[in-house]
Amino acid sequence: MKARTKQRVAEVLAAPYARVLRRDADGGFGAEALEFPGCYSAGADGPEALANLDEAMALWVASQLEQGQEIPPPLAVAEYSGRVTLRLPPSLHERAALLAAAEGVSLNRWLSAAVAVYAGERVDVGRAREVARVAEGEAGYGSGRGE
Fold first, then answer.
1. pTM listed for this prediction
2. How many CB atoms lie within 10 A of CB 139?
């Protein structure tokens, strides 16, 4: 790798790119750079998988630069308003509205809690029981009406 490319790779990778670490079924670990399509690595443990990913990311960025391709910006620099438009099957919308009403919260608050539980964020346990069941599929939502 040319010295100029190496310097540019280091500059790019100084940005806060998103790395995801997952345990594989065989007990090893896989790691992925979310912004770099196809940039994956693995290792016997988490630190090894992440170290391997750092090397894979450097090679990915170098390859893109050498081909004159754009490097995607880090997801972390994106701004999020907290506002999302969501479409649901009618039966799921109905079940969510009923569960929210039963808990005495707005549908918006209930859906926020459901997403938080699914994303692994801590939520008030008393209010989140039904949310967690729905998020994990235990409540068996869906009425068989072809959603």
1. 0.57
2. 14
